[in-house]
Amino acid sequence: MRDRLRITNKKYKNAKLKTANNYWKFCFGGDIPFQTPLSSLEINNQQQTQNSLPTMTKMITLTQPQLHDLLQHEIDWLKQCGCSIHLALYTFATLVAIEKPINEDVMYTIRQTCLAWKQTRMRLINPNDNEKPADDSLIKSCDVFMKSLKYCFHPSIISRIPSCILSANRRYLATDQNASTKTETNNTTEAQAEIGPSAPELQVNNLTGDHQHVFEIALNRAERRNALGKQLLSQLDATLDSIKDNNAIRCVLFRSMVPNVFCAGADLKERLTMPQEEVGPFVSKIKEIFSKIFGLSVPTIVALDGLALGGGLELALACDIRIAAHTAKLGLTETKLGIIPGAGGTQRLPRLIGVAKAKELIYTGRILDGQQAYEIRLVNEVVKQNAQSDAAYQRSLEIAREIAQQGPLAVRMAKQAINKGSEVDLQTGLDVEEGCYDTVLTSEDR
Prior knowledge:
GO molecular function, one term: lyase activity
Keywords: Lyase
Helix content: 55-70%
Radius of gyration: 25 Å
CATH superfamily of the largest domain: 2-enoyl-CoA Hydratase, Chain A, domain 1
Family: Belongs to the enoyl-CoA hydratase/isomerase family.
GO cellular component, one term: mitochondrion
Distance between the termini: 84 Å
Number of strands: 10
CATH topology of the largest domain: 2-enoyl-CoA Hydratase, Chain A, domain 1
Number of helices: 23
Strand order of the largest sheet: 1-2-3-5-7-10
InterPro entries: ClpP/crotonase-like_dom_sf (IPR029045), Enoyl-CoA_hydra/iso (IPR001753), Enoyl-CoA_hydra_C (IPR014748), Gemin2/Brr1 (IPR035426)
Shape: globular
CATH architecture of the largest domain: Alpha-Beta Complex
């Protein structure tokens, strides 16, 4: 019996999948509906659930309309965190099958999360007299998420896990404690490298070959949909300071490393943990950084291959050229949360698409797709999304390459003339243009 239960290193990966499948059969009957390889990303869905608690707690204090709009704003995040009962259950089965402890701290977090969702649901289905009921789809999302958590993490469920499953796991650990420790360390390192808090939240790259002189800045905070937190902003600020006087750079390209997401805006979860006196300076810092982007002497392009809401769109507005995939979702949604765009949105959007249309979009918090954004001149081009979810990025690369091939000083002076001239009357603008023209007359670009 002991030999039969022992899991060897060679068979460990297959044993994990088999154990997860056994747990699924035990609770629900039938096999897991998919056979996805177990990875650190799936394992860390448990951590994502724990990290979601502050936002869920905040939901309890919101009015019903604010709550409704917040859930609309976060619908993709809800799906990622576990609106799919299959994904949530499979994640837990994975945790059971490997050397990840499900301790009392985790159980407390899950219970508090379930409580927060229960109260959230009550606020959705029982609005005040002057409030409208929430959409059925949002209530259903709450129900599914709560059910997922309840079945995955409730102590009574854990206590009913067949002893042979847990025994197999424990016996593997007992086989080679050093090996298991090494495995756990490697898994943790892999998770952090992919989505963990110690991973670089910003990737920068001097492109070479056909894209020489193009500097790429890539947002890389997958677990928070590239939300603008302190660490990401600090890295972005330092990067901008380091390149502002680099004459070898002729174009800066902003993109996302996270599929279907550019930037979900400011990190509301992190903001909830800030003392009130820090919130104002934090927002001011975002505005300052976006002004640095706008003030770069070289052209800036942003590839919008997915979601760009709130501060994410404000970042894009600070760039010279915006390329969007047709599947992109763009909007200044701050009024849905009872605030206004605070990092340049109320100023740059009207200058780009006109005052009347900007007012309409900001007042309503409306979200546009790529084609709609193109029709109102919010983006320069819209491209059909490809299977790799990087169509806007590929098109942005083409434009960046074309810009980098032109006279570098001429391009810088053209940007300066346009930016400064657009803020003054025509005659003053013509004087600005003349000064920039005189600068390039004797340059080596000619």
